[in-house]
Amino acid sequence: MKISLSETKWPEEIPDVEVFKHGTLSILRFTPRGKDYQTPHDQDELYVIIKGTGDLLIKEEKFSFKEGDVLFVAAGKEHRFDNFSDDLITWAIFWGPKGGEG
């Protein structure tokens, strides 16, 4: 089963590839280019920034990031990457029940 980070068709190519799946855990390589079209997800999520810099917007709050940072997004929260570098590479890690762990 592939989890896509967006329900919307990306005008560029789809920037996520699932690399591991076990039970509720899913790990994707996520490499947005140009604009991030993400929609809220059913599960809690971690982003591990492998390469690049930018901002993660969660609702209206901005979190600047760089290589090596780990970012948490609770299930159902509106979020997207903004002002990110052209070389952004992240691991997106999803786990737990729909609606998050509370």
What does this structure look like?
Helix content is 0%, strand content 45%. The protein has one domain: Jelly Rolls (Sandwich). The strands form 2 sheets. It has a 5-stranded antiparallel β-sheet, with no helix packed on it. The chain has strands spanning 16-22, 25-30, 44-51, 54-58, 61-65, 70-73, 79-82, 89-95. The model has no long low-confidence stretch (mean pLDDT 89). Strand 1 (16-22) and strand 2 form a beta hairpin. It has no helices and 8 strands. The chain is mainly β. It is globular and about 30 Å long.
In short:
By secondary structure, the protein is an all-beta fold.
Question: Which descriptors would you attach to this protein?
Answer:
mainly beta, single chain, Jelly Rolls, five-stranded antiparallel beta sheet
Please identify the top-level CATH class. Answer: Mainly Beta
Span from first to last CA? 25 Å
Classification by helices and strands: mainly beta
CATH architecture descriptor name? Sandwich
Number of helices: 0
Overall residue-averaged pLDDT value: 89
Radius of gyration: 13 Å
Numbering strands along the chain, what is their spatial order in the largest sheet?
Answer: 1-2-8-3-6
The topology string of helices and strands comes to EEEEEEEE
Spans of at least 5 consecutive residues whose pLDDT stays below 50 are none
Give a count of the beta strands, DSSP E runs of length 2 or more: 8
Provide the CATH topology: Jelly Rolls
What's the structural domain tally?
A: 1
How much beta, percentage-wise? over 45%
Write the layout of secondary structure elements.
Layout: E1 16-22, E2 25-30, E3 44-51, E4 54-58, E5 61-65, E6 70-73, E7 79-82, E8 89-95
Antiparallel strand pairs: 1-2, 2-8, 3-6, 3-8, 4-5, 4-7
